[in-house]
Amino acid sequence: MTKSALIRFAGVKGRAAHCLKLGPMGVEKPPTRWFDGGDEAVVQIRPTPKVPDCFDLTFDDGEFALEVPQNFFAILEELDAS
Predict the structure, then answer these.
(1) Do residues 66 and 58 make contact, with C-beta atoms less than 8 angstroms apart?
(2) What is the β-pairing status of strands 64-69 and 54-59?
(3) Do 79 and 42 contact (CB within 8 A), yes or no?
(4) Alpha-carbon distance 4 to 46, whole Å?
(5) What distance in Å separates the CA atoms of residue 23 and residue 30, rounded to the nearest whole number?
(6) Contact call for residues 16 and 10 (beta carbons, < 8 A)
(7) Contact 66, 47 (CB under 8 A)
(8) Predicted TM-score (pTM) of this structure
(9) Beta strands 73-79 and 3-9: pairing type?
(10) For residue 19, what are the CA distances in angstroms to 9, 22, 36, 74?
(11) Is 39 exposed, middle or buried (0-12, 13-18, 19+ CB in 10 A)?
């Protein structure tokens, strides 16, 4: 089930960075998106069907990252879908 949520990336600003590969799997040299620890983002979040403890994230600008480990972020707030 897909839901909208505010997430915060794990770690402390300036001391932890997360690089997410974007787009479909199997693409040679996929684009990336970087986040510092503590950065927040509004995403559409959906559990990854075949990979436990991972989520597919879609950002407001339409970019998406697949199979993001749950320990990369915390869900701060589930947002109303309306």
Answers:
(1) no
(2) antiparallel
(3) yes
(4) 9
(5) 7
(6) yes
(7) no
(8) 0.85
(9) antiparallel
(10) 11, 9, 9, 16
(11) middle
User: Which tokens hold the place of 78?
Assistant: 């589930």
pLDDT grade for 81, boundaries at 50, 70 and 90: low
Q: How far is CA 7 from CA 26, 30, 37, in A?
A: 26, 23, 11
| Total structural domains within the chain | 1
Tokens of 82: 């309306």
Cα separation, 53 vs 68, in Å, equals 8
- Provide the residue range defining the domain that includes 16: 3-79
- Report the alpha-carbon distance of residue 39 to residue 27 in Å, rounded: 26
30-57 pLDDT, tens digit each: 899 999 999 999 999 999 988 999 999 9
